[in-house]
């Protein structure tokens, strides 16, 4: 599965601790992240993370484009709801695309834990079916 990991600055410690706690699961998947988040995760865990641009510089939009192309299966985006972000429209667009394409999304640590455990238990395997269908050319 392709997993996007994103965290706003005040949530960076949370996403790093989450990544440490679930390294054994995460390492079985393809990991993607916005720039700074990805750097911190790979430094702390040694996990191989494909890094897009930093969020304010377009990273959220790059991940959104992957979602639109059906190339992202899970999004874990630890948002900071108490701090205004300069790229708020990009954030909204990313969350919107998760809803457009029914991509499992967690925006806080509690949801992230549920998602990662669901992934481990196979509850997200339907994503493989969706991707297979696309490869068969059944999707626009
Ligand atoms: O701003 C972000 C998401 O909106 C995260 O970007 P960074 O991971 O580069 O800090």
Automatic annotation (TrEMBL):
Pfam families: MGS. InterPro entries: Methylgl_synth, Methylglyoxal_synth_AS, MGS-like_dom, MGS-like_dom_sf. CDD domains: MGS. Its EC number is 4.2.3.3. Residues 1-140 form the MGS-like domain. SUPFAM superfamilies: Methylglyoxal synthase-like. The keyword GTP-binding does not apply. Substrate binds at residues 8, 12, 34-37, 54-55, 87. Keywords: Lyase. It catalyses: dihydroxyacetone phosphate = methylglyoxal + phosphate. NCBIfam families: MGSA, PRK05234.1. Catalyzes the formation of methylglyoxal from dihydroxyacetone phosphate. This is Methylglyoxal synthase. It comes from Aquibacillus rhizosphaerae. The lineage of its organism: Bacteria, Bacillati, Bacillota, Bacilli, Bacillales.
């Amino acid at each position: 599965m392709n997993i996007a990991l994103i965290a706003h600055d005040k949530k960076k410690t949370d996403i790093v601790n989450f990544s440490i706690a679930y390294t054994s699961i995460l390492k079985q998947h393809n990991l993607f992240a916005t720039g700074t988040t990805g750097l911190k995760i790979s430094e702390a865990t040694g996990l191989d993370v494909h890094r897009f641009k930093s969020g304010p510089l377009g990273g959220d939009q790059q991940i959104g484009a992957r979602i639109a192309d059906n190339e992202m299966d899970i999004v874990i985006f630890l948002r900071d709801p108490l701090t205004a972000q300069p790229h708020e429209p990009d954030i909204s667009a990313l969350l919107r695309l998760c809803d457009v394409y029914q991509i499992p999304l967690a925006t806080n640590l509690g949801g992230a834990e549920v998602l990662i455990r669901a992934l481990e238990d196979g509850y997200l395997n339907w994503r493989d079916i969706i991707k297979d269908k696309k490869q068969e050319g059944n999707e626009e």
